[in-house]
Amino acid sequence: MAAKRAMDLVLAVPALILLAPLFLAIAIWIRADSDGPVFFRQTRVGLGGKPFTIYKFRTMCADASSRGPALTSGDDPRITRAGRVLRRFKLDELPQLWNVIRGDMSLVGPRPEVPRFVEHYPTNVREEILSIPPGITDPASLHYFDESQLLAGQKDPEQYYVEKILPQKLAIYRAYIHGRSLWRDLWLIVRTVARVFR
């Protein structure tokens, strides 16, 4: 665990510094494109079931939570023009580097869910998945890279997510936990970056 934390800091701190100009450019673009804050904050469930605040660049209108469902799918009209580009290239996830530095998250690990979706985890599975820090990327994130498009074709996206996608994600999370290593984490980071550019 100490080695994984060291790797997170060795990679996340320089990345945050190097990407500072990009952060500034994105922040200016978001403010120019729509009213509202630059960052989106949301409570997620982390290590040991402890809630924490996750940070993302805002990609939706400021009052999105009152204008539609929690899950975002396809061409959701609440997504801003800037938000569509940020989501396409996963740039909205970059502020989570700060979560990594704070110790809320790791670069690689099961994606943190909102509390109401964690309630759908079977008890034994919940304990296992929450036994390690959540991450920015993992094998499930790569498998469901275009998850919003998949949800767009469903009559009830949230029900489909809970009944079909979430169980598969949990299985992938468990497989990752059982076979995790620093080398595999590095390979997943490389694959994620490559997938974004591809």
Q: Would you write up a description of this structure?
A:
By secondary structure, this protein is mainly alpha-helical. Helix content is about 55%, strand content about 10%. The chain is built from ten helices and four strands; from the N terminus they run ααββααβααβαααα. It has helices at about 1-20, 20-35, 80-90, 95-100, 115-120, 125-130, 140-145, 145-150, 155-180, 180-195; strands spanning about 40-45, 50-55, 105-110, 135. The strands form two sheets. It has a two-stranded antiparallel sheet with strand order 1-2. A two-stranded parallel sheet has the order 3-4. Strand 1 (about 40-45) and strand 2 (about 50-55) form a beta hairpin. Helix 1 packs across helix 4. The longest helix has 23 residues, at about 155-180. It is globular, with a radius of gyration of 16 Å.
Strand content: 5-15%
Name the overall outline. Answer: globular
Average pLDDT, rounded to a whole number, is: 92
Q: Output the helix-strand order.
A: HHEEHHEHHEHHHH
Figure out the total of helices: 10
Strand order of the largest sheet: 1-2
Count of DSSP strands:
4
Radius of gyration based on Cα positions: 16 Å
Q: Could you list the spans in which at least 5 consecutive residues all have pLDDT below 50?
A: none
Strand count, sense and closure of the main sheet? Answer: 2 strands, antiparallel
Head-to-tail CA distance between termini: 31 Å
Sheet/helix structural class = mainly alpha
What's the multimeric state?
A: single chain
| Helix content percent band | 40-55%
